[in-house]
Amino acid sequence: MTIRNQEQALGSPGTAMLDLVSRLYPICRSITGDGVRETLEILSEWIPLEVHEVPTGTEVFDWSVPREWNIREAWIEDPHGERVVDFADHNLHVVGYSVPVREKMPLEKLRPHLHSLPDKPGVIPYRTSYYKETWGFCLPHETLQSLEDGTYEVCIDSTLEAGSLTYGECLLPGESPEEVLISCHVCHPSLANDNLSGMAVAAFLARRLQAGPHRLSYRFLFIPGTIGSITWLALNEARASDIVHGLVLTCLGDPGPMTYKRSRRGDALVDRAASHVLADSGAEDRVIDFFPYGYDERQYCSPGFNLPVGCLMRSQHGTFPEYHTSADNVDFLDRDALEDSLRNTWRILQVLERNAVYLNRNPKCEPALGKRGLYGETGGMRRGEFDELALLWVLNQSDGEHDLLSIAERAGVKFETIAAAAGALAEAGLLGPAGNR
Amino acid sequence: MTIRNQEQALGSPGTAMLDLVSRLYPICRSITGDGVRETLEILSEWIPLEVHEVPTGTEVFDWSVPREWNIREAWIEDPHGERVVDFADHNLHVVGYSVPVREKMPLEKLRPHLHSLPDKPGVIPYRTSYYKETWGFCLPHETLQSLEDGTYEVCIDSTLEAGSLTYGECLLPGESPEEVLISCHVCHPSLANDNLSGMAVAAFLARRLQAGPHRLSYRFLFIPGTIGSITWLALNEARASDIVHGLVLTCLGDPGPMTYKRSRRGDALVDRAASHVLADSGAEDRVIDFFPYGYDERQYCSPGFNLPVGCLMRSQHGTFPEYHTSADNVDFLDRDALEDSLRNTWRILQVLERNAVYLNRNPKCEPALGKRGLYGETGGMRRGEFDELALLWVLNQSDGEHDLLSIAERAGVKFETIAAAAGALAEAGLLGPAGNR
Amino acid sequence: MTIRNQEQALGSPGTAMLDLVSRLYPICRSITGDGVRETLEILSEWIPLEVHEVPTGTEVFDWSVPREWNIREAWIEDPHGERVVDFADHNLHVVGYSVPVREKMPLEKLRPHLHSLPDKPGVIPYRTSYYKETWGFCLPHETLQSLEDGTYEVCIDSTLEAGSLTYGECLLPGESPEEVLISCHVCHPSLANDNLSGMAVAAFLARRLQAGPHRLSYRFLFIPGTIGSITWLALNEARASDIVHGLVLTCLGDPGPMTYKRSRRGDALVDRAASHVLADSGAEDRVIDFFPYGYDERQYCSPGFNLPVGCLMRSQHGTFPEYHTSADNVDFLDRDALEDSLRNTWRILQVLERNAVYLNRNPKCEPALGKRGLYGETGGMRRGEFDELALLWVLNQSDGEHDLLSIAERAGVKFETIAAAAGALAEAGLLGPAGNR
Has the ipTM of the complex gone over 0.90? Predict the structure, then answer.
């Protein structure tokens, strides 16, 4: 296993992320099993991943790690012996965690095991049954309707036995032990936006962070949804307090505008940073309040942890018609959207990295900027000389109470501009540190 | 005196309330006197009322209980000896608290004692003069204009002498000594919406509360406006601190939508509960801020008490043309409106009864709802499965800081739904008490 | 020097202010020099001014007082010996603080010293160069374009040498040592709105304050912009803490509606008072947030002082086309606008003077207003009896927490009405003092 060269990752990340998604797409993932292992192995070509195996039966808070599920083949043969549904064609055809079955039965007995979407007759739905032992097939409604009466043979060659839950972790230590958590779920089979897109953006973020120094530490988790985050939190409870910011990444490849779902706290720095970056990108009205449904932010934001973890998406789960169907495939993804998602996520992380509270060392009246080469030299200037106004905002607000992001918000300018102004003032000795936030 | 059977009260409360109003309508009430006593006696057929008599001259804060006023007959005879105005026809014809008079006088001398509404020429206005000794008659403007010159004979056979101020009180003790105050004024003569409607709704609320157990204690006051609430507060100053919620009920029978006027505090639980219930009933924009005018909330919300008492109405006093005229009669009332008022008031009381702060006993990550029969069993579900989302909201927010009403508000669902979800979770041992609010 | 008679000042202040502006207009002012002295001498005819001289080189925080600049003549002669630009025609023709020059040079060498506005070809721009030694002329763009090639003679007979910075101060002591700061800049040459208008309004405010008693003390500063306020703050640092409210006055004569720029605090009493007065005058949407650019509020609101000083204007600097050009002349000013500015500023000061927190001495229930002659005597009144409602608002809110301005805001009525009601209640012994705010 070699780490692919960095130029490729940074050069055209949209294409590279789309290639990664295409390669991961055919693999049959679930909350446990070999599909997750294969996925993490491919991700390891890009970033250094530590792969954890947590044995079946391990108690994790109110839950226990389930048995491991693996599947080799599954099909339905019609009365003429023709395979009308075949797992080999599409892994969504089998209800996740189906118990093994090999049996002949009339259509009416088979029927309750068949799932389709009458309102979307051409696509295969996605169904799982993790905690109730059953089996089933998913198929296009038009296929279901074409089935004639008679005796069908069904085969699901799966195993559900003691094994482990597998997840990947990548810690990139920074100057500070304070951590940013980036979490994405790796339990969905052939579904591209949900959530191969999140995995691809997370992997490319990690590569970019590795390319240079960073103040904060970053912990990337590639975990099965719900049970994976519960497992990680249960096994790493003491570490959770190091997490000062976090993002769940999902549905980042569709052509819709960005959406940010706030953490339960609502006003954490990550919430403010994401709102600022998205407002700037013209998607302001897609910042939504926390609600206790969705992805692993449900666990990170449970009241016993209440971590400042939001969820970054483009289209929200359940709001695009391709969601949880075979239509959520590689063709549904947009290269530019993936690249835009990466860029916005990066900008959010940069706010977290660079935000700080400064103290104006010359707080009584404005300092003479001219003699330090920081001010235009001809009087009678108008408002609108942008950089000078940024300098004045930073000086005026740096009383130890306002961080750079709040100054940017009050001034109505980009964080980057305010941060650059603060840098120049600090260099000139006019600003001193008052602690990071 | 017998308590009427309960079925009648609960069976068709709109009709029953309208019957009660019709029976009380002809009685000549004022802030003191036999009309109030007769009114309380009729109310006693429905609910257990303790009738208090406070002697004339009793000092009550900055005021003293006035002399008692009673009236037997009153009329004006025109120059031909015809009775052009007669108290026997309508008790609004006499200015309340008129001193006795029996005199012949020319029209020009009588004129200053005659009150009419030029812009509503067909109705009799309502006038009183409690604190300045005078006498007067009220009549339709068209009658006034038809009076010819000449000598008129006027008679008011009233008495204004030492007696007492009468009010009714009904305390329904609950598990808790904390009290809900329900107050309505009983001092208006033949005026139906203002305030026989409030008296009827209060009486039927009390009956309904008697029909089952309740956590809170309820104190119903049937009192003359202003001087009555001042008297009660002065004589019961120590008890006022037990009042944790309160409603003044008035103008609850007209066909307009509900209005809630907040307490002086503005954010008391009764304010939030009423806003929630009214928003739900489609009258959201009729929640108005407190102002120091209106009914007895003026006294309950005076700064020395500042009780959390709001005022529940349909049309606000002064905003409907029938207000304080003979047009505010039984025909003006709407049976369905009375019933809707009772239903909404009841729902507000239910929020007060059931609101509580819980503690999630399993605060770290979500509990496994499935193994407790509280969750759907097939994965891949979408947002919209309402009851599960309510369970998740209650679990997520029950950190000891949020009461059920605030959870309902944040979740955007009915209080009843959130309270039901909390009940199920408490039964499953997942929620514990953190105190009531 | 005599103080002009007061009647003139109070009788027709618009005309009188316009006369004062006209007299001051031709004087060539700068941040130092004889023009400022002459200006202060004329103002001394109206109000008692203490004139201060601060020597060149005095250290004032991060700055030092610059050399004094004076100018006698300046002109450009074209190749034919004709004066194409002459300081004697308009003092904007010379860049402020130009060093002396007397030289012949070809047009191409002169060109970089010539400033014009291509988009406003008929007007002379205003330029200064206080902190970089250079010289220059300002002229209409159409004049610049008409210049033919050849040798030009230029003359600037100025001096830039050790001297002093001059400013005027007028302290009007009140009952309280708490001060209201009224500050305006006196450094602009022939520019009428910016800022002869501010000087005129300040002078007439001072006259009006002298005409009667006032609770607060008032400090008027007539100072050069930026370096003047920095100098005053540096030399009077200990006095700054006495400043409890303040206004920078500028651009108060143009025909646009009033604008108020909040202090850095945003919710200081002066901010609330100005918002209330302007809302009342129909200019509510012109209350804008603080930003660290503009006039001397930049210094007063620097974080080391953070004084509650806002800025009152009509049109904002930079938003009217005449700004900083020869078009900002006496004709641009509007007599009624000047008078309206004076009236609104006066009303703001009256809120500061009269605002107070009272205690209701009869806080339990309403007092009996009738027996004190403060209430209408016939019952059945409707909301709308304005004065009684004002009395009830003051009584209800006077719990020691709410000042009169907040009561006016909550009641939605003019401050003057609430203050009058409070006065009547205090006279009746129903209100007592709880301290001023």
Answer: yes
Confidence of residue A435 (pLDDT cuts 50, 70, 90): low
Q: B29 — contact with chain C (CB < 8 Å)?
A: no
Does C219 lie in the same domain as C176? yes
Strand (E) positions, C31-178? 50-55, 59-60, 63-64, 68-77, 83-86, 101-106, 114-115, 137-138, 151-161, 164-172
> In this structure, are residues A375 and C280 in contact, taking their beta carbons and an 8 Å threshold?
no
Instruction: Flag whether residue C53 sits within 8 Å of chain B, measured between CB atoms.
Output: no
Question: What residues in A contact B421, CB-CB < 8 Å?
Answer: none
**Distance, CA of A391 to CA of A397 (rounded, Å):** 10
Q: What's the CA gap between B182 and B47, in Å, rounded?
A: 14
- Please report the DSSP string for C360-427 in residue order: ESS-SS---SGGGT-S-SSSSPPTT-HHHHHHHHHHHHTEEEEEHHHHHHHHTS-HHHHHHHHHHHHH
Nearest alpha carbon to residue B302 among B61, B128, B66:
B61
Q: For A348-363, what is the mean pLDDT?
A: 97
Cβ B382–A301 below 8 Å, yes or no? Answer: no
CA–CA distance, B88 with B72 (Å, rounded to integer):
9
Same domain membership, residue B191 and residue B123:
no
- Burial of residue B346 (number of CB atoms within 10 Å: 0-12, 13-18, 19+): middle
On chain A, the residues whose CB falls within 8 A of the CB of C233 are 364-365
pLDDT in tens, A272-319: 999 999 997 776 669 999 999 999 999 999 999 999 999 999 999 989
Buried b (16+ CB within 10 A) or exposed e, C352-384: bbbbbbbebebbbbbbbbeeeebbeeebbbeee
Same domain, yes or no: C176 and C44: yes
Encoded tokens for C346: 């006066």
Total domains present in chain C: 3
Quick one: which of A245, A331, A253, A262 has its CA closest to A14?
A: A253
- The pLDDT score that the predictor gives to residue B8 is 46
What one-letter code names the amino acid at A314? R
Q: How far apart are CA A178 and CA A241, in angstroms?
A: 9
C-beta of residue B128 within 8 angstroms of C-beta of residue C378: yes
What's the pTM?
A: 0.92
Cα A128 to Cα A189: distance, rounded to the nearest angstrom: 11
Residues B206, B78: one domain?
no
CATH number of residue A399's parent domain = 1.10.10.10
**Which parts of chain B sit beneath pLDDT 50?**
1-9, 377-386, 437
Q: What gap in Å lies between CA C73 and CA C159, rounded to an integer?
A: 11
Outline where A69-136 has alpha helix (H): 107-110
